[in-house]
């Protein structure tokens, strides 16, 4: 097969200019031994993943990959290097655990040594952030074709010209996730280590092949750089925009399972992005070039846009398939419940490319799934309440069927994305409030959870009603509605919303027992107060008092 080989070698002429090869040898890469495949074509990454990594092609042309032992993030193994340039900005504690510079150097060396033993080393150069004023250049160096293709989908892909003039990256990821960390190295708690160094602007991954670690690593870096270096606000949110000439923009905040992806995928609006954004002085832009969607129970009827994005170039992660016809079984959770698909954002038909809106948001929607069934389906928040709920970051998990828990469990994840924030939550909240104030943005709290009783007695608020509420926000009718006060949480709730039965707008009215409702709302209010106390040291009194009053 000499002809085919020749074509291959031509491609592997390493496409690096002298300067960049020099950077690689300085970093400790043995260029005589390894093949560097930079920004390789999708088809070539497919071939390598199938040949060397046990990947298979699904019936619709997506590449099914397996991440091994770890099928989700390892937040307990994440470290931030404690060094002079960033130590006064980082919110140290359980989210951002310290690591000393020397240990980072040991792990970095270990990762590079491992990469040097591989025949193929994959490099992907791309951008994070669609606004050229605030974007950063990212280089991913990995031992798996799967990881290269994943970041090809998740970062913003450079044009051939941008790639040729890429120069030195602003941030580098060394992904040696197939190789473990040494547990005897100071500060290592397990064989997994994910660490970020803001002085070197580097990330090292050892002992986990879960691709989401790279995506969230970039997000953490943007959560540091955007506010500290650029003075812009990074957010864990989705965003969409009305069609037409520079239509209105909405930001959706919400934790997993609250409807952030589902509600922002609106056929009448353009999708800017589904997960990570920056609210800048000139508008809103997506950080990513792709989407990383959950595929559990996915169907063409429920989520056609996502279902149809699973084609050649997309990656299915830890998804079970039928060997006879290679059709994925999205209901099978035997590997993990966290099955995923990563695809370029242009695979979504109504995506707005480039993913940037040159205008300030008109509405912010905070989503929560309240399984206690006491929060109203929609309420309008004051700027202080918006800060309070942003810092609290509430949703709840419904009891699992197998473990005998019958009570819902509350989840408070500050800034609606606690695992990824780097600065004190109060700093993001203050920037949010300043931007809302300056641009006169309306803020809404929407409960996509239970109504008429808590989990077990009430029922989940039907999606069609939630969509009607979102439509009323977008057409401006909700802002003009008549509002009344909802006690304890002191929220303003509308008396009527088109397409929604009026009685469900006030939860107290649909609970069969008034006493049971009052007991439940007091209980949830107490949980809020307890959760919020962690952040009080840096939060002003007017925000603190915007929460529930018991």
UniProtKB/TrEMBL annotation:
Name any one GO molecular function.
Answer: ATP binding
The reactions it catalyses are: oxaloacetate + ATP = phosphoenolpyruvate + ADP + CO2
Q: Which UniProt keywords apply?
A: ATP-binding, Decarboxylase, Gluconeogenesis, Lyase, Nucleotide-binding
Record has NAD as a keyword: no
The Gene Ontology biological process terms listed for this entry are: gluconeogenesis
Q: In which pathway does it act?
A: Carbohydrate biosynthesis; gluconeogenesis
The record's listing under SUPFAM superfamilies reads: PEP carboxykinase N-terminal domain (SSF68923), PEP carboxykinase-like (SSF53795)
GO CC entries: cytosol
Could you tell me which InterPro entries the record lists for this protein? Answer: PEP_carboxykinase_ATP, PEP_carboxykinase_C, PEP_carboxykinase_N, PEPCK_ATP_CS
- Taken from the record, one Pfam family name reads PEPCK_ATP
Q: Does the keyword ATP-binding apply?
A: yes
What does the record list as coiled-coil region(s)?
A: none
**Could you tell me which PROSITE patterns the record lists for this protein?**
PEPCK_ATP
State the EC number(s). Answer: 4.1.1.49
HAMAP family in alphabetical order: PEPCK_ATP
Spell out the family assignment given in the record's similarity comment: Belongs to the phosphoenolpyruvate carboxykinase (ATP) family.
Q: Which protein, by its recorded name, is this? A: Phosphoenolpyruvate carboxykinase (ATP)
């Amino acid at each position: 097969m000499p002809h085919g080989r020749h074509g291959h070698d031509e491609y592997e002429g390493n496409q690096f200019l002298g300067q960049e090869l020099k950077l690689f040898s300085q970093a400790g890469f043995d260029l005589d031994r390894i093949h560097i495949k930079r920004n390789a074509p999708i088809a070539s990454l497919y071939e390598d993943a199938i040949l060397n990594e046990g990947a298979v092609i699904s019936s619709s042309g997506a590449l099914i990959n397996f991440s091994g032992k770890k099928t989700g993030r390892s937040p307990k193994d994440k470290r931030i290097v404690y060094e002079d340039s960033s130590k006064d900005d980082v919110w140290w504690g359980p989210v951002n655990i310290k690591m000393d510079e020397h240990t980072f150097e040991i792990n970095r060396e270990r990762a590079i040594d491992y990469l040097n033993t591989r025949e193929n080393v994959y490099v992907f150069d791309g951008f994070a952030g669609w606004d050229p004023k605030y974007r950063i250049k990212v280089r991913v160096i990995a031992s798996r074709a799967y990881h290269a293709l994943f970041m090809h989908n998740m970062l913003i892909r450079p044009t051939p010209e941008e790639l040729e003039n890429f120069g030195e990256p602003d941030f580098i990821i060394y992904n040696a996730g197939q190789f473990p960390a040494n547990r005897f190295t100071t500060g290592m708690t397990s064989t997994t280590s994910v660490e970020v160094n803001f002085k070197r602007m580097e990330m090292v991954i050892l002992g986990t092949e879960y691709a989401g670690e790279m995506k969230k690593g970039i997000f953490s870096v943007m959560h540091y750089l955007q506010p500290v270096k650029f003075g812009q606000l990074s957010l864990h949110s989705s965003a969409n925009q009305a069609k037409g000439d520079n239509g209105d923009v909405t930001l959706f905040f919400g934790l997993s399972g609250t409807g952030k992806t589902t509600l922002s995928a609106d056929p009448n609006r353009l999708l800017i992005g589904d997960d990570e954004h920056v609210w800048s002085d000139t508008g809103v832009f997506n950080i990513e070039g792709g989407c990383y969607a959950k595929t559990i129970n996915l169907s063409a009827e429920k989520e056609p846009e996502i279902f149809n994005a699973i084609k050649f170039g997309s990656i299915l992660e830890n998804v079970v398939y039928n060997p006879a016809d290679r059709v994925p079984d999205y209901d099978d959770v035997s590997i993990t419940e966290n099955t995923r698909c990563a695809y370029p954002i242009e695979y979504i038909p109504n995506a707005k490319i480039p993913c940037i809106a040159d205008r300030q948001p008109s509405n912010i929607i905070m989503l929560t799934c309240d399984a206690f069934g006491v929060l109203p389906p929609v309420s309008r928040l004051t700027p202080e309440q918006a800060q309070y709920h942003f810092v609290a970051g509430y949703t709840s998990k419904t009891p699992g069927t197998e473990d005998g828990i019958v009570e819902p469990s509350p989840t408070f994840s500050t800034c609606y994305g606690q695992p990824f924030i780097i600065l004190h939550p109060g700093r993001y909240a203050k920037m949010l409030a300043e931007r809302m104030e300056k641009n006169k943005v309306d803020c809404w709290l929407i409960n996509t959870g239970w109504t008429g009783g808590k989990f077990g007695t009430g029922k989940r608020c039907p999606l069609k009603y939630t969509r009607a509420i979102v439509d009323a926000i977008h057409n401006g009718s909700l802002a003009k509605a008549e509002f009344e006060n909802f006690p304890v949480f002191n929220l303003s709730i509308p008396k009527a919303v088109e397409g929604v039965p009026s009685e469900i707008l006030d939860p107290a009215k649909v609970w069969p027992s008034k006493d049971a409702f009052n007991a439940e709302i007091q209980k949830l209010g107490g949980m809020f107060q307890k959760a919020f106390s962690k952040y009080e040291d840096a939060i002003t009194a007017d925000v603190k008092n915007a929460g529930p009053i018991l």
